[in-house]
């Protein structure tokens, strides 16, 4: 604190005692812009009276001197005390030093952050929280932390992925998950699971791996389950939406070349050697280093990008698709490029079908079930759950609806929460082949059955909504409405006035209305597939209806065939050459059935379909049932033709057939010209 004393006029004389003046460490002491205390005030220079500026107040120079002495004293006292240890090295207090003495020492220590103004007056220090760690222990850069954490997580994931092979009863999702709950599932997890599956051949083991993979997603990030299931099914949307990636190998090769800094010729050459564009992508990315790695891929990121690729259309759409693919490949690591390419090609080829995926989804739901308990009469919940999911998906083949219903309502309520929906195609019921009429009679003893012509056309499912909208779907649930505009325009005139909505199961057959006869399937296949204009149609078709699945808001799948047939005949009227009911025979006489078969073959039909009428005769979507049998001339030894053919060429296999011949070109020998004539290619 400053003491007040009389102020004397400063003259150009030596001071009586030395001063320990400590000037600010600056290189500008003797520059023209000197500190204020070196500049005499104008009043001092202009005044001729030496006592005119005398004052009783302390001068700035006195304040400077006093402050300098105080700072020097503090420095001497701090230098004489023992050096304080770093807190980071030894945080325990000294035994000889009390807390009070420590606090006193800290209060007298000069703080480096404390400042004084140019006249020596100390400035107050703003209160600010000090870090808990030493400056030498600053956390690393956030980007570096991210790269390290991702690489460590990937390494951990690769080490744990083998746990997916455990039996579901012994598996815990925490064994594999290397990401936090609610965090997006890394695409590497899905890729490593695919890689694990590709090395297995047993159906049970593969189902266990897929089940545990889905359980891990459900346990950590259930919101990602829809995307994971779609990718595992190698789809981007339900089949009836008609959304396809539409990418050829040429576009993928261009994107791969640009992403990896290679030429297209190099990629093509390696593709020829490896036979798998996915393996080429993996080898190319593993040999490339990057200055800055993009954010790691997630399952949702990949799926959303695939959807965007599928929706690209118009000008420069192929270029946009290529750029999106390139962005995915640049961010891909490890085995991700291999499965990105295979998914883009829609050739996953890892050894499991969609039916295996559905069964695994049902089993995963049982292990993660939190909403309901299985009915008491179920002996094997896992098998029953697999059946439920398959059955529901055959009626409502939309993962966007089935998976959320599974998560919210549980597996045992799935049949109630997901049901037949008009406008969404149902999987077609299929027939098992048989070799003769006698076999049919033996299998259907004491059972009423019906025989129908098996027409050689395209299986179709026609949905008619109450608002008059018509949709036509193929047996693979693909939307064929644009292929048959003539059917769309005509179907409403065949229904009776009481019919407001319906779903027909039928066959669309090429038909000559002048000669009133059925034409071969090869003629039907000449019709354009998309955006057909009615005026451009040269091949007419006739609708041959044989079943009805939905009528006036009521699903009929659980009704017996006899009931469905009655509803069909009562709801529509025939019009020759346009709409007809399938020709049928109800008899169990061997001779009558044989004659009916001969008649079908003579009218350019493939053969017969035999169906039970009122016992086990419900409609079973997507199932090849023993209750429906098909008898084709090709199956019968007495009618079928045989050919003696020899292979004359082979084609290199790709994918799983890499290193083997994937297909053969067959030919028959022409005795007249003494040469082989190529007939067909088989795979």
Automatic annotation (TrEMBL):
- CDD domains hit by this protein: Adenylation_DNA_ligase_I_Euk (cd07900)
Q: Which reaction does it catalyse?
A: ATP + (deoxyribonucleotide)n-3'-hydroxyl + 5'-phospho-(deoxyribonucleotide)m = (deoxyribonucleotide)n+m + AMP + diphosphate
Give residue ranges for domain ATP-dependent DNA ligase family profile.
534-670
Compositionally biased intervals (Basic and acidic residues): 123-144
Query: Which GO terms of the molecular function aspect are on file?
Result: ATP binding; DNA binding; DNA ligase (ATP) activity
Q: Name one GO biological process term.
A: cell division
UniProt keyword annotation of ATP-binding present? yes
Ranges of Polar residues composition bias in the record = 90-105
* Recorded family membership: Belongs to the ATP-dependent DNA ligase family.
| Name this protein carries in UniProt | DNA ligase
């Amino acid at each position: 604190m400053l003491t007040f004393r009389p102020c004397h006029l400063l003259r150009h004389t030596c001071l009586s005692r030395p001063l320990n003046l400590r000037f600010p460490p600056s290189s500008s002491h003797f520059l023209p812009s000197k500190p204020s205390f070196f500049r005499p005030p104008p009043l001092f220079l202009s005044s001729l009276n030496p006592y005119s500026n005398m004052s009783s107040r302390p001068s700035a120079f006195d304040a400077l001197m006093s402050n300098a002495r105080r700072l020097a004293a503090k420095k001497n006292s701090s230098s004489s005390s023992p050096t304080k240890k770093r807190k980071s090295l030894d945080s325990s207090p000294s035994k000889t030093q009390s807390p009070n003495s420590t606090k006193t020492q800290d209060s007298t220590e000069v703080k480096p952050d404390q400042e004084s103004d140019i006249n020596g007056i100390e400035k107050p220090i703003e209160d600010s929280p000090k870090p808990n760690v030493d400056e030498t222990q600053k956390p690393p850069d956030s980007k570096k932390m991210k790269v390290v954490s991702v690489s460590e997580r990937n390494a951990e994931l690769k080490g744990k992925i083998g746990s997916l092979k455990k039996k579901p009863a012994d598996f815990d999702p925490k064994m594999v998950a290397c990401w936090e709950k609610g965090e997006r599932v890394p695409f590497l997890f899905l890729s490593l699971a695919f890689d694990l599956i590709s090395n297995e051949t047993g159906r049970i083991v593969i189902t266990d791996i897929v089940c545990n993979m889905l359980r891990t997603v459900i346990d950590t990030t259930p919101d990602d389950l829809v995307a994971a299931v779609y990718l595992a099914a190698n789809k981007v949307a339900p089949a009836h939406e008609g959304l396809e990636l539409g990418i050829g190998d040429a576009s993928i090769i261009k994107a791969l070349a640009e992403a990896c800094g290679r030429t297209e010729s190099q990629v093509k050459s390696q593709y020829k050697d490896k036979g798998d564009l996915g393996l080429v992508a993996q080898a190319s990315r593993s040999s490339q280093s990057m200055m800055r790695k993009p954010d790691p891929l997630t399952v949702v990121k990949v799926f959303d990008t695939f959807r965007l690729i599928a929706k690209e259309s118009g000008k420069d759409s192929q270029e946009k698709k290529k750029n999106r693919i390139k962005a995915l490949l640049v961010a891909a690591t490890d085995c991700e490029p291999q499965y990105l390419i295979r998914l883009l090609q829609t050739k996953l080829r890892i050894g499991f079908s969609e039916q295996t995926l559905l069964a695994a989804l049902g089993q995963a739901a049982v292990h993660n079930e939190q909403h309901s308990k299985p009915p008491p009469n179920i002996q094997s919940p896992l098998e029953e759950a697999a059946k439920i999911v398959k059955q529901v998906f055959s009626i409502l083949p939309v993962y966007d609806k089935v998976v959320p219903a599974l998560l919210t309502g549980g597996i045992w309520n799935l049949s109630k929460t997901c049901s037949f929906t008009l406008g969404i195609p149902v999987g077609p019921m299929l027939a098992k082949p048989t070799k003769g009429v006698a076999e049919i009679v033996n299998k259907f003893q004491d059972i009423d059955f019906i025989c129908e012509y098996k027409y050689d056309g395209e299986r179709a499912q026609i949905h008619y909504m109450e608002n008059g909208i018509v949709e036509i779907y193929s047996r693979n649930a693909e939307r064929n409405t644009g292929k048959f505009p003539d059917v769309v325009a005509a179907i409403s005139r065949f229904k009776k006035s009481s019919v407001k909505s319906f779903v027909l199961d039928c066959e669309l057959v090429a038909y000559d209305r002048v000669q009133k006869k059925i034409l071969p399937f090869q003629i039907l296949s000449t019709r354009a597939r998309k955006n057909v204009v009615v005026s451009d149609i040269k091949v007419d078709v006739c609708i041959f209806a044989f079943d009805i699945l939905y009528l006036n808001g009521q699903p009929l799948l659980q009704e017996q065939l006899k009931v469905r047939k009655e509803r069909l005949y009562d709801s529509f009227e025939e019009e020759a050459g346009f709409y007809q009911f399938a020709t049928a025979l109800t008899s169990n006489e061997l001779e009558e059935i044989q004659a009916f078969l001969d008649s079908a073959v003579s009218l350019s039909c493939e053969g017969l379909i035999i169906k039970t009428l009122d016992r086990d005769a419900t409609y079973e979507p997507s199932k090849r049932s023993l209750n429906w049998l098909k008898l084709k001339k090709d199956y019968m030894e007495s009618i079928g033709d045989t050919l003696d053919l020899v292979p004359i060429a082979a084609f290199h296999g790709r994918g799983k057939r890499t290193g083997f011949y994937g297909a053969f070109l067959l030919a028959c020998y022409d005795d007249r010209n003494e040469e082989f004539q190529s007939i067909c290619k088989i795979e």
